[in-house]
From TrEMBL:
Its cofactor is Zn(2+). This is (R,R)-butanediol dehydrogenase / meso-butanediol dehydrogenase / diacetyl reductase. Belongs to the zinc-containing alcohol dehydrogenase family. It comes from Parafrankia irregularis. Keywords: Metal-binding, Oxidoreductase, Zinc.
Length: 351
C-alpha cells in the first residue's frame, strides 16, 4: 500500500510498504482525510524521532473501519456501531493506562504517551492504519469524512477554551487565527461568549476567521491585525476598561503573550495552547498583583464527543479555511504548509 513516510528533515516520500493487519485488541482503518498541522511541520523540519526508521505521518484523520481484530472488548461491537464500513474520527493517542495521570483520568498527560503518526506508530497518511478501539469515535449520521478529519484540531481548541472556565456571557481574546485559533473562536461562540476579539497578522487568515464567525452569527466579533491595533487596548475598550475574562494564546510568540497578559481583567485566565519554540519573559509580580492565572492546554481528554456534537449542530463551518490535496501530492503539500499559504490542508488518501 502507499504510505507517506518521513525519511529525514524535509524528506517525505510516498513509499510502497506492506499493508498492516489488525492484531488482537486492534482495529484496522482506511484513512479517508488527514489534516496536516504545525506538529507535522515540526517533525518534517527536524526529522526528529527517526531512530526507528522512516515514520508514516498523519494524526488528524477520519477513516472507515475495515476490520475489527480479535479480542476487541468494546460494547460498540455487539451494538453494531463499531463495524466494518463505519465512519470514524480518531483520537490519536496511545496511552499507557497505568501511570499517575492515566490513573487520574488525565490521559492527555500520560507519561508514556505515543502520538499516532507523530511520535511513533505508522500514521494516517497511508491507505491503511491500525489503532486501538478506545481511540475510535464513531461519527453520527449527517457528518462526513471531511468534517471527521477536523474533529482532532477542533478538540485541541475545545480543550483550551475549556481551560478558561465558564465563559458564557463573558469576554475573550484569541491570539492567532491558524486552525486552532480559528477553532477556539468558534468554540467560544458556541459556549456563549459575548465579546470576542481575535488577532491575526495574516489577512488571509483574518478574512477566513471573519467568514466563519459571520456564518455562526458572530459577525460583530472584532478581528484585527495586531501590528496595527493594540489588542489589549481594544479588549479594554470593549469591556468598559476592565479587560477580558480569558485569553486563548494560539500564536506562540512573545509579543502576543505580552499583549494577552495586559488584555486580561484582574483574576482573568490566559491559556497557552500554541507550541512555543522560545521562552517568554513573565514577571510574577504582574500576575500576582492581578491574580492572573497562566494556564496551559495539551491536546484533549474527553473533548471528542462534545466536539462531534457541536459539529453536528453546525457550530464549526468549514467553508473558506479547508483545502484538499491528494496523497500523491503530499510532499508538495508540506512545502505549501511551510510557506503558510493555507490554513488547513486535508490529504485525501484515496486520491
Ligand atoms: Zn495536529
Ligand atoms: Zn499513562
Amino acid at each position: 500500500m502507499r504510505a507517506a513516510r518521513l525519511h529525514g528533515p524535509r524528506d517525505l516520500r510516498v513509499d510502497d510498504v506492506p499493508a498492516p493487519s489488525a492484531g488482537p485488541g486492534e482495529v484496522l482503518l482506511r484513512p479517508l482525510f488527514t489534516g496536516l498541522c504545525g506538529s507535522d511541520l515540526h517533525m518534517w523540519h527536524g526529522g526528529t524521532g527517526m531512530s526507528a526508521g522512516p515514520l508514516t505521518l498523519g494524526h488528524e484523520f477520519s477513516a472507515e473501519v475495515v476490520e475489527v481484530g480479535p479480542d476487541v472488548d468494546d460494547p460498540r461491537v455487539a451494538a453494531g456501531q463499531l463495524r466494518p464500513g463505519a465512519l470514524v474520527s480518531v483520537e490519536p493517542m496511545w496511552t499507557c493506562g497505568h501511570c499517575g495521570p492515566c490513573r487520574a483520568g488525565s490521559y492527555n498527560l500520560c507519561r508514556n504517551m505515543v502520538w499516532h503518526g507523530l511520535s511513533d506508530r505508522a500514521g494516517a497518511l497511508a491507505e491503511l492504519t491500525v489503532v486501538r478501539p478506545g481511540m475510535v469515535h464513531v461519527l453520527p449520521e449527517g457528518l462526513d469524512a471531511v468534517q471527521g478529519a477536523l474533529i482532532e484540531p477542533l478538540a485541541v481548541a475545545h480543550h483550551a477554551v475549556g481551560r478558561c472556565g465558564d465563559i458564557a456571557g463573558g469576554s475573550a481574546l484569541v491570539l492567532g487565527a491558524g486552525p486552532v485559533g480559528l477553532a477556539a473562536a468558534l468554540d467560544l461562540v458556541a459556549r456563549g461568549v459575548e465579546r470576542l476579539v481575535v488577532t491575526e497578522p495574516s489577512k488571509v487568515r483574518r478574512d477566513a476567521v471573519s467568514t466563519v464567525l459571520a456564518a455562526v452569527g458572530a459577525g460583530t466579533a472584532s478581528v484585527v491585525d495586531p501590528t496595527e491595533t493594540d489588542p489589549a487596548e481594544l479588549a479594554r475598550e470593549l469591556t468598559k476598561g476592565e479587560g477580558v475574562d480569558c485569553v486563548v494564546d494560539a500564536a506562540g510568540v512573545e509579543p502576543a503573550f505580552q499583549s494577552g497578559l495586559s488584555a486580561l481583567r484582574p483574576g482573568g485566565t490566559i491559556v497557552t495552547v500554541a507550541t512555543y519554540l522560545k521562552p517568554v519573559s513573565l514577571h510574577p509580580l504582574l500576575t500576582m498583583l492581578s491574580e492572573i492565572d497562566v494556564r496551559a492546554s495539551l491536546g484533549y481528554r474527553g473533548d471528542f464527543p462534545p466536539v462531534v456534537d457541536l459539529m453536528a449542530a453546525g457550530a464549526f463551518p468549514i467553508d473558506g479555511w479547508v483545502r484538499q490535496v491528494p496523497l500523491a501530492d503530499v510532499a508538495e503539500a508540506f512545502e505549501l504548509l511551510d510557506a503558510g499559504a493555507d490554513i488547513k490542508l486535508l490529504v485525501d488518501a484515496g486520491a
